[in-house]
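About this split. The held-out portion is used to measure sequence recovery: a designer receives only the structure tokens and must propose an amino acid at every position. Recovery is the fraction of positions where the proposal matches the reference. Here is one held-out target exactly as it appears in the evaluation file.
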């Protein structure tokens, strides 16, 4: 597989090598050692999620309090989405920046995002199915959202009329979330990730 850093620090695009023949195909969609070498520590696997969305559904931008935050490793097993990572870490050199990767069942790419980054996606097909691995379990009291249509973020969602959940439609803008003290601090995220690197060996089996 090939790992490519995105323009948002702490986010990576992963492109697997597919092996196909008349019977079908095989690929490694996740390798803890390769990811650990790139990010400096292995991804702790605490929860696996699956999400199915209709075309034009936009979900996000979701994030969690740091520490511990929630790192994610996402791939699309059916259909296609535009997967979006947003830097919500106050003080980060790329604060407010977003980057997007098309995830689909053709190239079968994946996206990794570190603790403190925001995540969202837009379904490009009906029954777009995402599966993602998470470093921590769901904690509703530590979960937050920023409005995905916030003009300050300027995310170019490929949906004529984006379909949002009631929660996402009521989410604050980036500026409102920052003023309310909801956003993670870049330094706190860096310190937390440093503790992961110090206590684990990315190649340790």
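Reference sequence for scoring:
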């Amino acid at each position: 597989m090939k790992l490519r850093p995105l323009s948002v620090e702490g986010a990576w695009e992963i492109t697997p090598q597919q092996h196909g023949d008349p019977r079908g195909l095989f690929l490694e969609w996740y390798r803890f050692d390769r990811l650990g070498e790139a990010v400096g520590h292995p991804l702790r696997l605490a929860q696996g999620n699956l999400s199915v969305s209709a075309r034009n559904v936009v979900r996000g931008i979701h994030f969690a309090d740091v520490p511990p935050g929630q790192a994610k490793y996402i791939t699309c097993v059916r259909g296609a989405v535009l997967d979006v990572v947003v830097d919500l870490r106050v003080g980060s050199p790329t604060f407010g920046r977003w980057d997007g990767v098309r995830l689909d069942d053709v190239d079968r790419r994946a996206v990794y995002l570190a603790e403190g980054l925001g995540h969202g996606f837009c379904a490009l097909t009906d029954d777009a199915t995402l599966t993602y691995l998470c470093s921590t379990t769901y904690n509703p009291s530590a979960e937050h959202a920023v409005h995905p249509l916030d003009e300050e973020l300027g995310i170019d969602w490929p949906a004529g009329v984006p379909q949002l959940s009631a929660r996402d439609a009521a989410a604050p803008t980036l500026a409102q979330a920052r003023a309310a003290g909801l956003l993670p601090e870049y330094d706190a995220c860096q310190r937390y990730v440093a503790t992961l690197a110090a206590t684990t060996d990315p190649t340790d089996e």
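Annotator remark: The helical segments are 32-39, 166-169, 174-179, 186-199.
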